[in-house]
Amino acid sequence: MTAKRVTFKLNGVTLEAPEGQLVIEAAKAAGVEIPHYCYHPALGNPGNCRLCVVEVAGAPKPMVSCRTQVREGLEVYTDSEPARRAQASSLELHLVNHPLDCPVCDQSGECGLQDYYMKFGRYDSQVREAKEHKRKRLEIGPHVMLDQERCVLCTRCTRFTEKITKTSELGIFGRGHKEFVDLAPGQRLDNAYSGNTVDLCPVGALTDKDFRFKVRVWYLDQTPSICADCSRGCNVSLHTNTKRPWHDEGRRLARVKPRHNPEVNQWWLCDEGRYGFKKFDEDRLGRVMRLIPYRRELAWETALDELASELRRELEALGPEGLAVVASGALSNEDWAAFKAFFVDALGCKRFLFAPQPDQLGIEDDLLRRKEKVPNLEGGKALGFGSAVASLSWERLEADLEAGKIWGLYLIERDAARFWGAKASALLSKPRLVVWQGPWKGRTGELAHFRLPATAHIEEDGHFTNFEGRIQAYQKALEPLGQARPDWSIFEGLRQRLGAAQKAAR
Amino acid sequence: MKILTRHFDNPKLHELETYRALGGYQGLAKARGMAPQAVQEEVKKSNLRGLGGAGFPVGMKWSTVPPPEKAPERFVVANFDESEPGCFKDRVLGTRAPHQILEGLLIACHAVSARWGFVFIRGEYADQYDILKKAVAEAEAAGLCGDVKVRLMRGAGAYICGLDTALLETMEGKKAWPRQPPPFPTVVGLMGKPTVVNNVETLSMLPHILVNGGQWFADIGAKGDPARRIHPSGGTAVYSVSGDVERPGIYEFAMGTPLRQIIEAAGGVRGGRALKAVIPGGTSTPPLAASEIDVPMDFDSLRGVGSFLGAGGIVVLDETRDMVEVSHNIERFLAHESCGQCTPCREGSEWTTRILERVLEGGGVEPDLANLRRVGENIAGKVICALGDTVGMVVRGYMKKFPEDFAKRLPAKPAEAAR
Questions:
Q1: Mutate: best of A50, A89, A92, partner B, most B CBs <10 A
Q2: Which of A268, A475, B31, B253 minimizes the number of CB atoms within 10 Å of its CB?
Q3: B360: distance to nearest CA of chain A, Å?
């Protein structure tokens, strides 16, 4: 049932909105910003910050717009003199005991107090009194730091742990101006979604332990992307640091923040997805290498020529049955299409391992996390991988290698050596040709004949299809490292070199 | 006119036997012979208003409880969390006449068809808790509670719990942060069920209204003057008179009695000194100047002189009192008791206190007065509950009526030459 639509006036403009909608939401929909801290659509409207005060015609005093509902004929002013004065005075009271330590605060540049002061405050401070001191630099969990002095006590974080994760690690203690946010006795903020409290905190009270003091936020660029750490496909924003390469220990990706998508991840992101990004700047491949029988760096064209000719030779001698291909749901839809065109349509391969075996399985919960720790199994399934084409298991592949049934092993991104452990060297020395392709070196990268650097998804444009079949685009946030190329272009380069010949031969 | 304190000279009034011998529990018997709706009508007719401070008409409050077919479970809570500085009448009522409170609670339960009656009693009132507990046991043994279960609950020492919605939160085991109506507790109250919260003095009036009729009660009180937006207030009120008077104590007078008469009943200003100010309703109500004490004591007349009847805690201040000290004392209390939920009160109460503290210590600067006034204005009307409004109101009240006390503590404006 849709709510009745009514007309109301906002700053003199007649607008339409569903009856009963909160004024703060109706204003937002109309592009009018009302300052607020405590209100959050997912966490309710306790109305404790008193910042979203507006003038309502006929009301004797300012009303909080997060608790005022739209009704026929309502007249609201967010920018009248009384409304502006009410907002500014509320902000002034928020700042009475705030330490104003912006120069050393990580929230600088994205702080609700700073932003609102410039937009709605601009008064001269009248505070002559000493500030209330509370505890600072508290490590309240593996990812989050707490500064009680900077806190405006909006209770967003406590409500998040109460309503969303249902873990209630945080609470408000004390009374009056001595009140503070803290951990409940015996607790640590170590739930799987703890990082969201940092996003929710409108000020610098909760900051990311990982991001603190690394780079100022105004040096960061933002690119819309999709989290690739499980099949949920959470919408994220990649914050990259390319303007100050000497900051943040040279890390190009400074942090990952969730992007609101009501149908996928709402406002949230799990800690695995949020803090797993360091891998994009560590242990990466940049050079095209041949390692066996002799180690040398190759140009792409040479490498593809050599690999194509070796593949052709073995295929002609031994047939496609002996070529095993290990891939995964980490491939994009574009990669999957080129993958199928090359390995299935051109070469006629039959031995594939792409299912999320234990190396790609993890914890699942009822909020966001899915047990398959790859983003795009569905993209493969749409092309038959998982239906028309079945997946091997690691055990089966291992047995086939032991039995000498496999002359060639083409591994994409999955670190078989790490999975096989001590047996890895022996197993990987069995095939005549081992190819390692992916963004990371891995252990397998040292044991392969060819080592082909691929881009990570943050370095290319593409699409993932999430577990429920939703196709989502991600954008290129960073330049590829070294000579890395998208997987699809590597498959396509090989297909062009030997696909046609192979097809003709069959 | 005495209703509640009529038999207070009887040292055994707190015992069931004595209370009954003096006519106790007849009001309950009469109420139980009537339909709940009829009890509500009788109370509406009486013009009884909430004596905890809000002055809301009791019958009207009850009538907002949804009908039993919509919400079968409902509660009545007796608010015995008397914490307002200057108020001690509930303590005396609970010590001397616990059965009067209990009878009133049971009548209220009948009037709204509730089968649970709670008494939330201030934690520090340990003696009164014991007295009331004994009274409940006596009443239960005598079969007076009927199918109503009466439970006592002790507070943990927060002033804010005297506010109905904070009281309900703490009863549920939570931090006592006031709720923001709507919905009002009579619709969504304790554990989400309709709940009537009435002050113990208010409840104590009910037996007498039932026995003597609503009209009798209304006739005793103030008639009101609709043209001046002064609504009728039925019956009497029990005042706690303290401060610079000869005979501090509790005094019961009909609604509308002039404040001067009450002060005179308490022996007037102590030591023959001149009167400077009177706090009429407990320290959270703004003060009256000596010239204003002919005001009739009822909920609406006091608004005309910029204050409130509150819970009837009259504090008399003589000519030796410094109003900066008085307002600082009160603001410090409010800052200490601010629950901390909403920002203007949490920060503003402490800021106000610190400015006053600095002024008291001789560090006042010229903009302080304007700033105190401005901060007060910025809190009042922008907060969740009445405590915050009070923070803004009190200091402005003292500044308005006793500007010379404030001016005397601040340096004169710097002369042009000195700049």
A1: A50
A2: A475
A3: 14
Looking at beta carbons, which residues of chain A come within 8 Å of B379? 93
Torsion, CA B150, CA B154, CA B160, CA B165, rounded to 10: -30
Is B382's CB within 8 Å of A86's CB?
Answer: yes
Q: Could you tell me if residue A211 is inside a domain?
A: no
DSSP state of A69: B
Given CB atoms, is A93 within the 8 Å cutoff of chain B? yes
Q: Tens of pLDDT along B64-111? A: 999 999 999 999 999 999 999 999 999 999 999 999 999 999 999 999
Picking from B231, B211, B212, B210, the residue whose alpha carbon sits closest to that of residue B221 is B231
Is A296 a member of any domain? yes
Interface residues of B toward A, Cβ cutoff 8 Å, are: 158, 175, 177, 180, 335-344, 346-351, 354-355, 358, 365, 367, 371, 374-375, 377-379, 381-384
Query: CATH number, domain at A398?
Result: 3.40.50.740
Sign of torsion, CA B95 B97 B102 B108? negative
Q: Which of A50, A92, A96 sits opposite B383 (nearest CB)?
A: A50
Domain termination site, one of A70, A95, A120: A95
Contact present, A421 and A437 (Cβ < 8 Å): no
CB of B138 within 8 A of CB of B150?
Answer: no
Place of tokens 């006793």: B402
- Nearest to residue B339, comparing CAs of B385, B389, B381? B385
Q: How far is CA A360 from the centre of its chain?
A: 18
DSSP class of residue A196 equals H
How far, in Å, CA of A77 to CA of A10, rounded?
Answer: 6
Of A95, A128, A156, which residue is a domain's last? A95
| A258 found inside a domain | no
Tally of helices (H runs) and strands (E runs) in chain A: 15, 22
CB contacts, 8 Å: B337 with chain A:
175-176
Using a pLDDT cut of 90, give the percent of chain B over it. Answer: 94
pLDDT digits (tens, 9 = 90+) for B334-382: 999 999 999 999 999 999 999 999 999 999 999 999 999 999 999 988 9
Tokens 């006596």 -> residue: B138
pLDDT of residue B159: 95
**A96 Cβ under 8 Å from any chain B Cβ:** yes
Domain span holding position A446: 289-505
B294 min Cα distance to partner chain A (Å): 29
Cα B275 → chain centroid: 24
> Global pTM?
0.94
| The two three-digit tokens of residue B226, written as one number | 């609709």
Structure token pair of residue B5: 């304190």
In a domain, A199, yes or no: no
Name the β-bridge partners of A8.
Answer: A15
pLDDT digits (tens, 9 = 90+) for B106-128: 999 999 999 999 999 999 999 99
Q: Residue A499 above 80 pLDDT?
A: no
A49 and B342: CB-CB below 8 Å? yes
Among positive and negative, which fits the CA dihedral A304, A307, A310, A312? negative
What confidence tier does B400 reach under pLDDT thresholds 50, 70, 90?
Answer: very high
- Where residue A83 sits, what CATH number does that domain have? 3.10.20.740
Q: Which of B180, B229, B346, B365 to mutate to probe the A interface, most A CBs <10 Å?
A: B346
Number of domains in chain A: 2
Euclidean distance between CA atoms A335 and A181, whole angstroms: 48
Contacts of A224 (CB under 8 A, 6+ apart): A235, A236, A237, A238, A259, A474, A475
Please state, in angstroms and rounded to a whole number, the distance separating the CA atoms of residues B291 and B277.
9
How close does chain A come to B235, measured CA to CA in Å?
Answer: 31
- Residue A85 tokens read as 């004065």
Q: Which of B170, B382, B390 to mutate against chain A (most A CBs within 10 Å)?
A: B382
> Which parts of B307-382 fold into alpha helices (H)?
323-337, 343-360, 368-379
